[in-house]
Amino acid sequence: MSTTADFGITLTQHVMRKQVLHPSARGQFSTLLTQIGVAAKHISAQVRRAGLIEVLGATGETNIQGERVQKLDHIANDTFMKVLRRSGTVAAMASEEEDDVYYVEPHRRGDYIVAFDPLDGSSNIDVGVSIGTIFAIYPRKHDGEVTLDEILRPGHEQVGAGYVIYGSSTVFVYADLEGVSSFTLDPGVGEFFLTRDGLTYPKTTSILSLNECNEPYWGPWVTPFLNQIKGRNDEKGRRITDRHIGSLVSDFHRNLIKGGIYLYPVDHRTGRGKLRLLYECNPLAFIAEKAGGAAIDGQQRILDKPLTQLHQRTGLVIGPQDDVDLARRTYARYMD
Ligand code: AHM
Ligand code: MG
């Protein structure tokens, strides 16, 4: 009988193992990912107390030190900022929770720019539904002071992206230029262990995921597109079902594993979408593409969209390549 304990590969071991394959790398990317893992563990611990924190936070209670209890999305934001600022790998950060870019002090500056949504789906917190953190990683373009063009750039310039889901388990998924891996937190050990490597997006759509109550605000292409998808169900069998959590990161994760398409089309009255390009759509589009899926705004590839404002919104269709192409063709037929 073997006496050697059988445990898996940790997030740190996995990123270090990959770094060895790139001997010229300075190691900052690996450090950054492991530090994001540290921030995720802190946030996960807080999310497990979410019911309490949100109720107290919402009523503006003060804690034992006389400080006002923060709401969970602010706690997540502060945690992410603090851990990355100290990591020595980041030069600037953009967050859904911050109006402006946060510039890291010169002596702590590293090689990367990180954009993140610290707690996506936060309207779901007080009902105990999965929420998550989404992040995008860009390389710096030059040394010295960070310039705005290093932040406002298209998503195809990302070198990594990922998310953490705080659900029935805490799951960390990241993509680098080579592919997508997922890890699950073992709460007893306090480590993320590799659970899937080389994740691929299923080729066939089996799940449709959107807020259908927005129908009055859709452009004329959306209903015909949905009818093509739903029309795959017939007397002989059910091929498509509907699943929508209303927490983008959780909807995306389920779709990536099971084969779903998610839509949040632009509102035809304003021409604007709801979701944010920099720290919601770009990172998820990067992950989807690295897994073999695709993401468009209806018409244009998400990763090619010019970013002109930090909190810019966009439409989003993200899922298996073939059905994202079908959406693009349907859009062209009804909108051009
Ligand atoms: P948030 O970043 O303020 O949480 O908003 C984004 C969320 C997504 O997670 C979710 O898919 C979408 O908003 C739901 O919007 P709606 O309530 O309009 O369906
Ligand atoms: Mg969000």
Structure characteristics:
single chain; 336 residues; alpha+beta; Fructose-1,6-Bisphosphatase, Chain A, domain 1; D-Maltodextrin-Binding Protein, domain 2; eight-stranded mixed β-sheet; five-stranded mixed β-sheet; 8 helices; 15 strands; 31% helix; binds 2,5-anhydro-1,6-di-O-phosphono-D-mannitol; binds magnesium ion
Lateral strand order in the biggest sheet: 2-1-3-4-5-6-7-8
Rg over C-alpha atoms, rounded to the nearest angstrom: 20 Å
The domain count comes to 2
Structural class: alpha+beta
Number of helical runs?
8
The CATH superfamily of the largest domain appears as Fructose-1,6-Bisphosphatase, subunit A, domain 1
Cα-to-Cα separation, first versus last residue:
69 Å
Output the helix-strand order: HHHHEEEEEEEEEHEHEEHEEEH
Which spans of ≥5 residues are poorly predicted at pLDDT below 50? none
Beta content comes to 15-25%
- Average pLDDT confidence is 92
CATH architecture of the largest domain, by name, is 2-Layer Sandwich
Total number of strands: 15
What is the percent of helical residues? 25-40%
Q: How does the major sheet shape up?
A: 8 strands, mixed
The top level CATH class name of the largest domain: Alpha Beta
CATH fold description of the largest domain: Fructose-1,6-Bisphosphatase, Chain A, domain 1
How does the overall form come out from the CA principal axes?
globular
**Oligomeric state:** single chain
Each distinct ligand:
2,5-anhydro-1,6-di-O-phosphono-D-mannitol, magnesium ion
